[in-house]
Amino acid sequence: MRVNADAWRIAIRVAEAFGSAGIEYAIGGALAFDVWGYPRGTLDVDVSVFVPTERFEEVCRALEGAGACVERDACRSQLKELSYFEAVVDEIRVDVFFPDWELYDWAYERRKRVDVEDLSSGITVLSVEDTLLFKLLFFRGKDKVDIESLMRVQLHNLDLAYIRKALRDLFRDEERTAWFESLVREVFGPGEAPPPGT
Predict the structure, then answer these.
(1) Please, which residues bridge with residue 44 across strands?
(2) Of 116, 161, 170, 191, which shows the fewest CB atoms inside 10 Å?
(3) Are 148 and 183 in contact (CB under 8 A)?
C-alpha cells in the first residue's frame, strides 16, 4: 500500500482528524484502488464525508487540524456548485466529496475498514463495488481503463448483483449498463459470465 506513499501519509492524517471530530468518511479514488489490488500513481486524496453540507465548517476545522490549507469562500462556492471542494495538505490536494446522490447512502452502508501500517485503528475506504460505481459515474476514458483493470484483479470477489442493481435503480443509463455488461462478458470469458439478474 505504499505505491502512493505521500498521498497515503496525508490520507491517514485526514482520517485521524475526521475520526477525532466524529465525521464519518471513506477514502476513495486511487487510494481505494491501492487497497483493492490495483495500485496506480496519484498525487491527490479523494475522501467522501457522510455528513450534510451544514457541517461544512466542522469538516474544514478537522482538515485544518490535519494541516490543511482551506480557503473558506472558495471552498464554499465550489461545494455549492459541484458538491465537493479542494483543500491542500503539504502540497497534496485533498478532494472532499459531500453526499449529493443516493449512491452515497448505499456506499455508506458498505464501507470497509482496512489495516494500514501507520494507523493502528485502520482506515475506512469505499467497498470495491462502490469504487467501481463512482468510476462508472464519471465514465471517462481513464475511468473505463481503471474499471477494467480492477475487475480483472477482483474478478471472483465482486458482488455483481449489487453493481447491476445500482446501474438499474440509480444510474438508469443504457450506455453505461451496456458497456459494463460487455466488460463482464470480456473479463469472465465466453460462457463464464454470470447473466444479468445474478
Answers:
(1) 93
(2) 191
(3) yes
pLDDT tens digits, residue range 12-70? 999 999 999 999 999 999 999 999 988 888 889 999 999 999 999 999 999 999 999 99
Same domain (yes/no): 13, 78: yes
Whether 197 and 181 have beta carbons less than 8 Å apart is answered as no
Single pTM value for the model: 0.92
Contact 8, 16 (CB under 8 A): no
Both 92 and 34 in a single domain? yes
Question: Residue 109, Cβ neighbours under 10 Å: how many?
Answer: 9
Strands of the sheet with 44-49, listed across from one edge: 68-69, 84-89, 92-97, 44-49, 25-28, 119-125, 112-116
Rounded CA separation 16/66 (Å): 8
For residues 20 and 62, is the Cβ–Cβ distance under 8 A?
A: yes
In a domain, residue 75? The reply is yes
Total number of domains in the chain: 2
Sequence-distant (6+) residues with CB within 8 A of 71 are none
